[in-house]
Amino acid sequence: MPETTASLRVEKSPAGFQALDRPRGEKFRLGYSPQLDGLRGISILAVMTYHANFNLLSGGFIGVDIFFVLSGFLITSLLVQEYDTNGTIRLKAFYLRRVLRLFPALLLMLLCYSGFSVAVWGFAGAKDRLIDALI
What we know:
Number of strands: 3
Order of helices and strands: EEEHHH
Oligomer: single chain
Structural class: mainly alpha
Number of helices: 3
Distance between the termini: 56 Å
Largest sheet: 3 strands, antiparallel
Radius of gyration: 22 Å
Strand content: 5-15%
Shape: flat
């Protein structure tokens, strides 16, 4: 017999694992979670420390794995929320929102990188490095 905890139903599977299920009609909403921002910040520091060769954190590359897991979790939660709201997932609209959110930051990064490259290596070197960065 399932036991009720807060507004979630907890059931035991045949293997003994617990599964949480939302009551019918209750919409999924992750909301803002500052802990995820903290995890993202720690991951950024780990990757930067690893790339800077400070020898403080030999496993800093794991920050990239954390980014992939975090991205998968957050994107899945967006898709589940859209499915709960609309009863379907419109992939075209989803990817358009992703492009509109990420493309401005990408353009800004490319502009900053281009300016930095010109200042450090001149126009000839900047062209080669910009092509390398885009590939």
